[in-house]
Amino acid sequence: MNSMRGLCAIRGNLAFAPAPGALTTIADGYILTRDGIVEGVFNRLPPHCQAEVINYGDSIITPAFTDMHLHAPQFPMLGLGMDLQLLDWLNVYTFPMEARFGNLEYAKTVYRQLAKELIRRGTTRVCAFSSLHREATHVLMEQLEKAGVTGYVGKVNMDRNSSPELMETTEESLAETRRFIQECNVYPHLKPIITPRFTPSCTDTLLEGLGKLAEEFPEVPIQSHLSENPDEIAWVRDLHPDCQEYWQTYHKFGLWKRGTIMAHCVHSSPEERAAMKEHGIWAVHCPDSNTNVASGIAPLRRMLEEGLQVGLGSDIAGGAKLSMPDVATEAIRVSKLRWLLSGKEEAFLTVREAFYLITTAGQAYFGAKPGFGQGEPLHAVVFNDSRFAYNPAITLEERLERILYLGDKATISAVYSAGRLVEI
Amino acid sequence: MNSMRGLCAIRGNLAFAPAPGALTTIADGYILTRDGIVEGVFNRLPPHCQAEVINYGDSIITPAFTDMHLHAPQFPMLGLGMDLQLLDWLNVYTFPMEARFGNLEYAKTVYRQLAKELIRRGTTRVCAFSSLHREATHVLMEQLEKAGVTGYVGKVNMDRNSSPELMETTEESLAETRRFIQECNVYPHLKPIITPRFTPSCTDTLLEGLGKLAEEFPEVPIQSHLSENPDEIAWVRDLHPDCQEYWQTYHKFGLWKRGTIMAHCVHSSPEERAAMKEHGIWAVHCPDSNTNVASGIAPLRRMLEEGLQVGLGSDIAGGAKLSMPDVATEAIRVSKLRWLLSGKEEAFLTVREAFYLITTAGQAYFGAKPGFGQGEPLHAVVFNDSRFAYNPAITLEERLERILYLGDKATISAVYSAGRLVEI
Question: Would you say residue A1 lies in a domain?
């Protein structure tokens, strides 16, 4: 990891999304940084600029990607169990897999691979679920720090409806979470996040306790799942007959707060979406996962039009694609099918919008400005697309589209995370 | 290219699909070949066997893949123009791109890249559309031969409704096609196929002339497009008011014969599908393309249940994925959405079925037996999945599933085509 001391000018073809549907491209541009902090983006360097130039030639440089929902311990099952649906898939594959993370050597092997692979795919910010094991969660955070991945990591809570090998008591779950949060101050680039798996996995006492923790640690946000699958929604209704809607099961325990992240929202009602908007909840759209476990196609266009805060997530290993460009193009694919199914009412996602979602939208969750934000540590990916098929008449925007669609990790030649050049 | 003289035993973990939904796996098995022709598949070598053993260790060996529908000249636009729908996409991107293939140097550059990329992705059999240029079509065939790709290639016919730079007269189109067919006897592994682009691109006189050519050269099959998009179907109805259905526009000119290939069939009526079955027509399902240009989801399950002959196609560059494992998993993805939309009536495609479609089903079009057929030249792909995430408790079938889903070309370590080890 290279810490970029002094004044550096990173040169290449810049592309970033200042707003949804907008794209700025700067051919042969420069990102000027001082000690890894962006000073500005330029067509040409200011006169007498003494910066060391790092020249990426004809490569394309974009902001690095944000993955707003992934299950780190499911990395070894990427692309497995795809003939099963959500609840079967959890019981047959997921829970036995997560149970293995009681073994810290196993955790280290898997998490080292995952952290490297995230960086190789250009993902520098994550909101990750770990397993319920506090110690293995620290192993995950150590490996992410080492590789250069930043963001939020949560020790998962579940005290019911799991398998015998993957269960904790309510007391353990709360005590371990408190201890986990208190231990996290050792990580320069990672923070804890409160992570009830989903309502069916948590007793009321646990949810209530987590709500109190969220009150005690107001800087710690919350992440969970919401309205992914009709069977799950029916189950939640059975478990909480006092709640009309799924979201209220989080709300009544103080877990529905500004900055809370809810993955999926495939079958959220208009009222549930209104409650998300009202309370400043983030929705994470995970198109590949929603298709693979046959949950459906989330109403992304409606969410965007209603003004919800939305990011994209790989949701490995329901999702089989760790690469955010792949997730972005899957979001476009399913949006086209939804467009057809809605009688062409709900416009499909454009390439520009999808790019916005995995860059500017995702980084906004971390308080970062659009594109390469001035005064902020650099997060960037350098793409060398010279090995793609010969096509001389192609614009920068088309090259970006092709990079997103063909998205081979071999195309990524350098990654910057939090103002450092990280090893790929 | 290594021609595999004498007796060779290729050793590794074998996986092939003997029938739809069936999978045979042989751990540490052998494919015995003599001069590149398969003698048999074995758990262990016959006693006193003098074969030279080519040991792929713990790798997985499957039959090589068949791509039953691709547009070779669209390779440079892979992953481009994805915000457009079929007819706009044709006019803005496709026709200008195909027009460039009047330039044989350009053709050679592009087709050399395409042919290598097909092999690197494990595709050894294709049914390909070229452009309308006879000479560039020969350039394509030369490059495919050189790289080791086998199959059918067609010079495209279109004498109306194209752009000015991509048009031929009816007479030219017929004369060039006849000449093309006659010139194709120089290729050991490639054969010509009659290729009217689709009904709207061809006058009645042209279709009639092509029907006569098909009669004159009965060994030359036919490929075209069918019922991809509702606008296209309405257009065909306007052009042929005497035809109730799209398929009849091919049938009335003698282009609807046993072995004819029809790509898409997304919106084919039950009657059209019955006509396909009755006449021995092959349907090619191109899921990624159908999603990208927003055509819809083809009723694959119905086709299979009705007993149609079905293969899969990348349909580059409507499809953005050249890799047949990627196409197979996209077929699974869209089938899951169709399953949901059909009220769970039309069962989704399983991983085994998808694998069958890109191997055994596709090779059947070429008269090859299932799996590694005895007495036939070897077509095989060797996958080294050792760089995938650490997961010690995984079966051969699960490893195959993961290979299909994660499908990175770096995983392919060797490819055999038509009894030769080809360079990747």
Answer: no
Which of B70, B80, B345, B349 to mutate against chain A (most A CBs within 10 Å)? B80
Give contacts of B389 with chain A, Cβ < 8 Å: 75-76, 78, 110, 113-114, 117
- Amino acid (1-letter code) at residue B41: V
User: Which chain A residues touch B350 with a CB distance below 8 Å?
Assistant: 83
Q: What is the CATH number of the domain that holds A49?
A: 2.30.40.10
Tell me the chain B residues in contact with residue A388 when contact means C-beta distances shorter than 8 Å.
78
Interval A179-196 mean pLDDT: 98
pLDDT attached to residue B392: 81
Query: For B80, which residue in chain A has the nearest alpha carbon?
Result: A402
Pair B395, B318 in one domain: no
Question: How many distinct structural domains can be found in chain B?
Answer: 2
Contact state of B292 with A334 under an 8 Å Cβ cutoff:
no
pLDDT of the residue at B68: 98
Q: Which of A292, A296, A282, A346 shows the shortest CA–CA distance to A318?
A: A292
What type of residue sits at position A346?
E
Query: Does one domain contain both A327 and A378?
Result: no
Is B337's CB within 8 Å of A83's CB? no
In A, which residues are within 8 Å of B408 by CB distance? 408-409
Put simply, whether the predicted model's pTM sits higher than 0.80 gets the answer yes
pLDDT at residue number B407 = 80
Task: Say whether pLDDT at A324 is over 90.
Answer: yes
Question: Between chains, do A351 and B83 touch, taking CB under 8 Å as contact?
Answer: yes
Q: Both B90 and B35 in a single domain?
A: no
B229 contacts on A by Cβ (under 8 Å)? none
Which tokens hold the place of A162? 């799991």
State the count of interchain CB pairs (< 8 A) between A and B: 114
Chain A nearest CA to B211, separation (Å)? 35
Q: Is residue B364 part of a domain?
A: no
Q: Which of A347, A379, A397 is the last residue of a domain?
A: A347
Cross-chain Cβ contact A398/B80 below 8 Å: yes
Res. A279 pLDDT band, cuts 50 70 90:
very high
Q: Judge if A90 and A185 occupy the same domain.
A: yes
Identify whether residues A302 and A413 lie together within a single domain.
no
Residues of B in contact with A291 (CB under 8 A): 333, 336-337
Write out the residue range of the structural domain in which residue A187 sits: 65-347
In this complex, which of A83, A291, A350 lies closest to B333 when CB atoms are compared? Answer: A291
Q: What is the pLDDT of residues B300-309, one digit of tens each?
A: 999 999 999 9
Does the bond joining A414 to the residue before it have cis omega, within 30 degrees of 0?
A: no
- Residue A363 falls within a domain, yes or no? no
* Contact residues, chain B, for A88 at CB < 8 Å: none
Instruction: Name which of B338, B356, B350 is nearest B287 in CA terms.
Output: B338
Chain-chain contact of B336 with A390 (C-beta, under 8 angstroms): no
Please judge whether B294 and A77 are an interchain contact, meaning their C-beta atoms are less than 8 angstroms apart: no
Nearest CA in chain B to A100: B391
Query: Are B22 and B106 within one domain?
Result: no
CB contact under 8 A, A320 and B83: no
